Amino acid sequence: MLKPSRTDKILTVQVHHESLNPRSFKVPLRWIHRASWMAWGMVTLTLVSSVYAIREYYSERSARPELVAELENEVQNLKIALEKKSTLSSPTVNVPAGATPKDPKASDERPAPAPGVPVEGKEGVWSGLAEQITTPPAGTDPSIRLEDARLEWQGKYVSFTVNVMYRDPGKGSQQGHLVALGRSNDRIFAHPEGVLNTASGSALFDANRGEYFSVARFRVLKARLGPFETPDQLREVQVFAFDLNNKLIRVQTYKYGK
Questions:
Q1: Separation CA 242–CA 247 (nearest Å)
Q2: CA nearest 129: which of 170, 65, 88, 181?
Q3: Which residues of 178-215 are buried (b: 16+ CB within 10 A; e: fewer)?
Q4: pLDDT in tens, 154-213
Q5: Distance CA 18, CA 189 (A)
Q6: Which helix (H) or strand (E) element contains residue 51?
């Protein structure tokens, strides 16, 4: 302990007890000053800690569960958009004469039924095609079939799957591009990403930007369409199949809902 110097101011305290001799205590005033500063420091630290604790309490209490749900939904939509961009988009494939590029999504084995609700389709040509696209003559049996179409809702998105089947197995393969449209009363969603034309385009979509396929027996088309605000907004899904010369092989419409 520091000894008081001669210049320090001293506080003398005398303690009297009954008839006993009084006792004297000398305390330097600078010790009292230091003790008071320490006490004020402790009080200030306590006040600051209390303010931050109260602030955190009200911040946690005022957090809205619906806001957390919206943020989680937004993160999920971003993940779906990234997956769709990386796995579902297919560039235009230029096929040299006599060469057949490999399609990793094609198979010689019949695929297992996809999850979801089966939907029935009917053929029909939509008038929104580009002028250079030709259609097969009436009565022509298309070289591919679309079978076992199914719809499954995943949040605000609908997962559509259909088997693309070559009708003459053992006679080579059929190459081309696939386009899927999910249509409601006031909007259209397309697969793959980037297939829709801009407002200056002469047609709704560009067949050359569709998902490339080369099928000898079986192949599965998987399309994720949306987001829809409610499932009732989806009216139909249309699938277009074109060959590499922009000739329409088959178009099939799958109605949904009432």
A1: 5
A2: 181
A3: bbbbbbbeeeebbbbeebbeeeeeeebbbbbbbbbbbb
A4: 999 999 999 999 877 667 788 999 999 998 888 899 999 989 887 767 788 888 999 999
A5: 100
A6: helix 29-61
